[in-house]
Structures are given as structure tokens and as C-alpha cells.
Amino acid sequence: ANDSTAKDRLRRRIQPFILRRLKTEVAKDLPPKTESVAWCEMEPGQAALYREVLEESRRKVNESIEKVGFKRSRVSILAALMRLRQVCCDPRLLKMPPGTLLPSSAKLERFMELVADLVAEGHRALVFSQFTEMLELLKQEADKKGLRYLYLDGRTKDRMGKVDEYNRPDGPPLFFISLKAGGTGLNLTAADYVIHFDPWWNPAVEDQATDRTHRIGQTRAVISYKLITRGTVEEKILSLQRRKRELAAGVLGTDGDDMGRTLTEQDIQELFTEI
Is-contact 236 271, C-beta < 8 A? Predict the structure, then answer.
């Protein structure tokens, strides 16, 4: 089994009968993929709420770092960053006390405009978010507009049944998918648009999700939109992705909890400052 000469001989003999093509090799055969940022501008109410949460988060994180040090503050840092990202997606994700008057979400409005245009033009889209609660809100909006859709998250039983249903010529125009559940193993070439509702620390995970449709069998150009709320932590995540090549190389793996190993204290301070 460990005879390298025998292995080489076997490899040479079977080589003519094996065709192995990596995605990088067939990329030239695939239609083009365009990636762009769709900017979302907050109304004054949402912007004020964001600043309020930002100030509270910065204070809590600084207190934690002073008390137990940077490394042991990772859980507090992640929780604070999640709250900021939730404000950007939709203030309802904050789970404020019942009766709290919450401002509307600029991103939700931008998303619905985008989807209305795509569907009217006969396109079909995969929609990814890390927050299943956000996907539930998007489903409610789709219901209000009478838009057909499918949904998949970690609890979905018949994944392949959903995939087959979506890929049918008369399948629904929208497929809402949680990022962790749908990042791999799905072939969804019926879609020609991908919408990332919220940015992830590691762009490699987003690329994997986009490649559910940009893969062998796709005949149309694929357009991928990343919805980013201007002047927030989301814009900072974008610049961080571009600046930190370790992130782009996938050092963080697929779990955002690993980010503490790559982000420095200076990065964290920057994430919690206003643009």
C-alpha cells in the first residue's frame, strides 16, 4: 500500500481513462459571474437606533476588555457585533420589549424593490441570510406581494425535493436559504441572481453559496448582489474583507466564531467606531 513506485505505475495506467475537471478548469466554460454591492441608505429613525446600539455595544465591549482582556472577551464582542448587524438587517431582529415602536428597515425596502424588478423581468433568485428570523420576515413580505417562493434552513427535511421543485421550469422565482444550511451540496442552476442579504466575515463562504447556481449546467450569466447598509459595521466588514487577505483565503473557516483568531484588538475598535 505504501509502495510509491507501484502507485505511480497504477496512476500512469489508469490516467488515460480518467477525466477529472476542477471548477477552476471549467470556469472558462461557464457563463460570466458579476458581483456588485447594492447600497442601502438608512432613514433618520433607523440611523438613530443604530447609533444608540453602537454606543451601548462599544461601552460593553470596552468594559469587558478592561476586565478580562481581549481574548476572553470574544463572546461579548460577537454578541455586540451581532446586535449591530441585526439593526442593519431589520430592527425587529433585536427582540425589543413588546410595544416598542421600531423604525422600518432600509435594507428590507431595497430588497423588495430589487426583487420586484427581477421577478417582473422573468429572473429567478437565491436569497441567503445568516439569520433565519430575517428569512421569516422576508417570507412574510413575499406573501404580502403574492410572490411564490421556497425555503430551506438547517431543519428542512427533504432538501433534494426542494431543489428539484425549484429547478423545474415552472418553479417559484425565489428561494430563501439560510447561509449555513445552503452553502454547499445544492445544485440550483435555475437561478440567475443571488442576493446576500447580510455580509459574512469570510467571503469564501459567500462564494460557496453563490456557486449553488454558478456551476456546471448554468447557461445564463449570474449576477450576485451583496446588500450593504451604508455607514455601518457592514461597510466596515466589506473593507476588512478586502484588507485582510487571510479572511479571503478562508482562514476563518465557515464559522464566524473563529474570527477572534484573526481580528486584532485594533480591528475590533475600528468596527465599533462611526464611519
Answer: yes
Check: pTM over 0.85? Answer yes or no. no
The secondary structure of 204-267, three-state, reads HHHHHHHCCCCCCCCCCCEEEEEEEECCCHHHHHHHHHHHCHHHHCCCCCCCHHHHHHCCCHHH
pLDDT of residue 203: 75
Q: 212, 211, 208, 204: which is closest to 253 by C-alpha?
A: 204
Residue 249: beta bridge partners? none
Classify residue 157 as exposed, middle or buried by CB count within 10 Å of its CB (0-12, 13-18, 19+): exposed
Concatenated DSSP letters of 107-139: HHHHHHHHHHHHHHTT--EEEEES-HHHHHHHH
Q: Phi, psi (5° rounding) for residue 48?
A: -65, -40
The mean pLDDT value of the chain amounts to 85
pLDDT tens-digit profile of 67-126? 999 889 988 998 999 999 999 999 999 988 888 889 999 999 999 999 999 999 999 999
Put residue 168 in one of left, alpha, beta given phi > 0 → left and psi -120 to 50 → alpha.
beta
- Which H helix or E strand runs over 184? none
Contacts 24+ apart (CB under 8 A), 64-73: 65/265, 70/265, 70/268, 71/260
Encoded amino acid at 15, one letter:
Q
Residue type at position 259: M
Q: For strand 222-229 and strand 149-152, is the pairing parallel, antiparallel, or unpaired?
A: unpaired
